[in-house]
Amino acid sequence: MAYKPSTLALHAGYDYSTSLQSRAVPIYATTSYVFRDTQEGADLYALRKPGFIYSRLHSPTVEVLEERLAAYHGASSGLAVASGSAANSFLLLSLGSPGSKIVASPHLYGGTGTLLEHTLKRLGYETEFVDLNDEAALRKAITKQTIAVFGETVANPSGYIVDIEKVAKIAHEHHIPLVLDNTASPPPLVNPFDFGADIVNYSLTKLVGGHGTHLGGVILEKGDFDWGANPHFKDYLNAPDAAYGGLNIWEALGKPNYKKGQSKVVTTKIRLDFLRNLGPVLSPFGAHEFLLGLETLPLRAQRHAESARLVAEHLAAHPKVTWVNYSGLPDSPYYPLSQKYFKETGPGAVFGFGLKGGYEAAVKFIDKLELWSNLANILDARSLVIHAASTTHQQLTSEERLKAGVPDDLIRLSVGLEDVGDLIETLDRAIAQAHKK
To answer: Taking the domains of the chain in order of start, what are their residue ranges?
Structure first.
């Protein structure tokens, strides 16, 4: 029987009959796993048999999280790591080599923009930032060296929405994958795989975990991309691996399975290479926290989104508010895409707004605001606020911030699960105080 996502969020990837009948997923707090005999150890290391060796590679608690998130999205596989930044870094590094090119949206979280613009550049990767929804600009930016089109489904904090279907079609014409960071809009808001995305990354720290208690990230592979169609991937994903006796992961695991949507090339390759050798593993304690969050994600995501819509509509009508970039408002340039992809739920719970008085009013407002926590996170159960230009996007120049949709007066809100009337009342009170002579 094919279960719905809300059921999978509670049950996928775990059989309690194999864990002493424990209804909750156990925390396997161990570094390593005993081999039944020397032959089993040899088979595990040679990938002839599935199982556990050492928790830097794999652990039972983390495996449940990976399989549950994959099932929830209809993906072939998942790979959990120590942070969302690690997920983005590993994924993009795994697709290419020095000289490779990434075409990316400029509407990105500041740390991701820095990764692409500076860190990966030092490693020989080039990134060209273009409006992904501008078909002419996107086609012009793609070259023979391009290994991925990368963006955030709903950008933090500009509200920019990627037209997933259109961008995926263009990427696939060139045999390159569409990679989306879907941190701000997990199902039931939107599942990018339903519209053509090939790989989806998350900072689990945000809405999936939901309670601001642990750092983590995940890479989800849809499983139907043909990594053999583009010669560029013969440098790594479709190449003999000297660390595994010349094993070609694509030929062994991908080519026989991708037409069935069951290829696990990217997640397997990253596990055997980057995770094993660089080591940013997700702990079983962190995986357990995220499993608890995932159980209630379908309910929380909808409540977050509904409250955000009400807050955005209230602010848009406020006489002291100069602009609101919530994509679900009819005057937003992204409203048509919001209706296309988020008609039932609204485009998430993170957006920005500006006040009369600009930068000075924004700073004063945040310092006067009660109930909302001023901190560098989003999509906690509690409502959060921050001045993006001086914090999360501080490393960017003013010009780069504007391209990313982050003017200096932007106040970023992450609407939580409190009573929405209480949230609106505190916003009104802080706005009045920010404009008091």
So the answer is: 5-285, 298-434
Residue 323: CB atoms within 10 A of its CB come to 14
CA–CA distance, 268 with 275 (Å, rounded to integer): 10
Cα Rg, the chain, nearest whole Å? 22
Which one, of 51, 50, 58, lies nearest residue 31 by Cα? 58
pTM of the model as a whole = 0.94
- CB proximity list for 419: less than 8 A, separation 6 or greater: none
Taking the C-alpha atoms of residue 113 and residue 104, their distance in angstroms, rounded to an integer, is 9
Q: Which residue's structure tokens are 């808001």?
A: 189
Query: What are the tens digits of pLDDT across the range 249-278?
Result: 999 999 999 999 999 999 999 999 999 999
CATH of domain 298-434: 3.90.1150.10
Residue with tokens 């008609």: 343
**Domains 5-285 and 298-434 equal at CATH topology level:** no
Q: Which residues contact 141 (CB under 8 A, 6 or more apart)?
A: 103, 128, 130
- Cα dist from 273 to 159, 268, 270, whole Å: 35, 9, 5
Q: What is the pLDDT of residues 86-113, one digit of tens each?
A: 999 999 999 999 999 999 999 998 889 9
In words, the CATH class of domain 5-285 is alpha beta
**What is the distance of C-alpha 431 from the center of its chain?**
32
Whats the size of the chain, residue-wise?
437
CA dihedral 202, 208, 209, 210 (to 10 degrees): 120
Q: In what order do the strands lie in the sheet with 126-129?
A: 77-81, 217-221, 199-203, 178-181, 146-152, 101-104, 126-129
